[in-house]
């Protein structure tokens, strides 16, 4: 459903994706199956895959990926329960560390992992480092919506638990760049999440961020639609929803939880009587159509924005279809030169803000 | 679906609900229709209804509510766009003001309004005042869930945009009292909303609130389940979800928006082909069963907790069925003597905390 990006891409050249094969709930077999699905659809893709060689080699051979795929042996695995601070200090030798290093060294253009989110963010921060001018990186997710493309972008959904007014402005710029390169939207509409659209509602820093975004919109080539509410997240009045990582994470999980409840209740409703079971059989195609439209596996992949390298976090419970979707997203972003574009955008906005002397914070500028 | 509360109620005595007939999207006719539906089901209920007499009298007569219903003439109406601060100063003579006064004066046991939420909260604060010992009142909503009763309680969903650790503890106590009297749960399970269940995640004040709630659980007669995430809001591992009003409001509207999107996509899926339209006809009963289970009209009614009087906020777009649900909730709370019980609970917790010398903040204690 997403139009292929039509920018000045490096088409024809092989794009290499670095894959952390370990740490997912379904183990490395699901990951390698996802790689195989992507390789089949896309002749330009190559892989560097990280994990215990003895475990990976038979999987790669079985899927006949040998010619497209280099294995980098990494015996250690980051577990779901590991603390990010611990992984940051002790993570060397893990498949996650190795996968990030391949991007850091320039051997791959993007990394995909379905491991522990906190650890992946922490390791990515330490090894790839923040982009010049970025204070607080963010995780952006895709959200099923009423828009023609089928998805909106929301950030931050959990890289950090706070964000001040300057961070929120940067999220708007980074989200714009992501929507343009990831979803093919020329001029994304950006909204700032708040509890009401009236001017007298909401937190003080949100009012300041509101004005900063309105000012930055013309130069940033996005349309600022002002405050949006939770109900607007899946709507067609906005493409990019900006919020802090605490609120964004709660909203994301609330949306997932609500969709899950409705899916289960729908199933119950159709199992209620023998007649409704017959109806369910007849309705199967329609229900599958709905399922496909909101299938979380199709929107799999949170992207870390604001680092020197593209990092895609696949869902921990992703199956082959889900992991393949995450690889597709990583490929698309790598192909469009997304990270260089994002860096240029943040740098020019930083310069612009310095020019206009509104610079108030600037830890890393 | 909710078991009738079996406490020491004032059964047999008429319970009077004060109704603000104005300010809803569908006008006073829908409100009076909702009153008629409630009156029909419940012979013990009486009403004082507020608004322009000339407009209300024919509606009341048409529904034959004359013997059950007193009209209090109020010419002015609070509009949806009115600022709460303005209504606080200039609200005298509005139907909303008049409706609250009837509870303040003891003529009615609870008030129901579908007007402007901010104005209703502000007026209720000023006229009814906060309960002794309550620092920050909260709005509690019912959320469709996997629990046997069908609903969970979440608070605060928008009374205020912030809450510190002591406020969150009070929300836990008030939510417990509401779940006991409103949903008939003897020993509610309370969870604190956060972005992760691991000990190293989340905001500092949430960690403190976590420990305060764990300490207060035995005396407060609730079970503290610790941190919960957005995905747990509709789950069956918790009955009461505690959070600040900003996060709660975003979560509530995100849930509503997600449910709305799925409902629309389900409709689309069933209109897709002639065959799917036939399937939809056969599936109609099942789909209606689902619709009934998550019908927002059935869970209509945010309750303001922490004031000297029970205030139920009906949805602005509520129809007669929705408004009748809000009246039912108000009746149920009035009948159970909820507000006196809540006051006693907060007071005893305050005394307990003073005893244990952990009292740190206390604007109104």
UniProtKB/TrEMBL annotation, chains A, B:
EC number(s) on file: 2.3.1.274
Pathway in which this enzyme or protein is active: Lipid metabolism; phospholipid metabolism
Keyword Cytoplasm attached: yes
GO biological process, one term: phospholipid biosynthetic process
Family annotation (Pfam families): FA_synthesis
GO CC terms: cytoplasm
Superkingdom of origin organism: Bacteria
Transmembrane segments: none
Single annotated GO MF: phosphate:acyl-[acyl carrier protein] acyltransferase activity
Subunit structure: Homodimer. Probably interacts with PlsY.
NCBIfam families listed in its UniProt record: plsX
Known role: Catalyzes the reversible formation of acyl-phosphate (acyl-PO(4)) from acyl-[acyl-carrier-protein] (acyl-ACP). This enzyme utilizes acyl-ACP as fatty acyl donor, but not acyl-CoA.
PANTHER family according to UniProt: FATTY ACID/PHOSPHOLIPID SYNTHESIS PROTEIN PLSX (PTHR30100), PHOSPHATE ACYLTRANSFERASE (PTHR30100:SF1)
Family, per entry: Belongs to the PlsX family.
Identification of the protein by name: Phosphate acyltransferase
Source organism (scientific name): Tranquillimonas alkanivorans
């Amino acid at each position: 459903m997403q139009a292929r990006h039509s920018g000045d891409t490096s088409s024809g050249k092989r794009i290499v994706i670095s894959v952390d094969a370990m740490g997912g709930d379904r183990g490395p077999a699901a990951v390698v199956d996802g790689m195989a699905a992507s390789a089949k659809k896309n002749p330009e893709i190559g892989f560097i895959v990280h994990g215990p060689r003895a475990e990976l080699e038979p999987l790669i051979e079985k899927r006949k990926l040998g010619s497209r795929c280099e294995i980098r042996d990494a015996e250690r695995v980051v577990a779901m329960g590991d603390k990010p601070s611990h992984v940051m200090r002790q993570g060397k030798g893990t498949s996650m560390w190795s996968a990030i290093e391949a991007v850091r060294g320039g051997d791959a253009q993007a990394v995909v992992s379905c491991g522990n989110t906190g650890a992946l963010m922490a390791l990515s921060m330490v090894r790839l480092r923040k982009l010049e001018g970025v204070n607080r990186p963010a995780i952006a997710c895709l959200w099923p919506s009423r828009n023609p493309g089928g998805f909106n972008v929301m950030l931050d959904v959990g890289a950090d638990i706070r964000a001040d007014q300057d961070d929120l402005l940067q999220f708007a710029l980074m989200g714009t760049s992501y929507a343009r390169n990831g979803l093919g939207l020329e001029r994304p509409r950006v909204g700032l999440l708040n509890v009401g659209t009236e001017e007298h509602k909401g937190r003080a820093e949100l009012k300041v961020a509101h004005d900063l975004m309105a000012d930055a919109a013309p130069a940033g080539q996005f349309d600022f639609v002002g405050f949006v509410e939770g109900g607007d997240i899946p709507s067609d009045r906005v493409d990019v929803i900006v919020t802090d990582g605490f609120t964004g994470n709660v909203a994301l999980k609330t949306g997932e939880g609500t969709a899950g409840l409705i899916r289960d209740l729908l199933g119950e409703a159709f199992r209620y009587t023998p007649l409704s079971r017959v109806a369910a059989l007849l309705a199967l195609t329609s229900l599958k159509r709905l399922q496909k439209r909101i299938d979380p596996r199709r929107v799999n992949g949170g992207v870390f924005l604001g680092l020197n390298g593209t990092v895609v976090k696949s869902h921990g419970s992703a199956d082959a279809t889900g992991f393949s979707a995450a690889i597709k997203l990583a490929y698309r972003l790598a192909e469009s030169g997304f990270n260089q574009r994002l860096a240029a955008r943040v740098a020019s906005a930083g310069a612009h803000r310095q020019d206009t002397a509104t610079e108030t914070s600037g830890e890393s500028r």
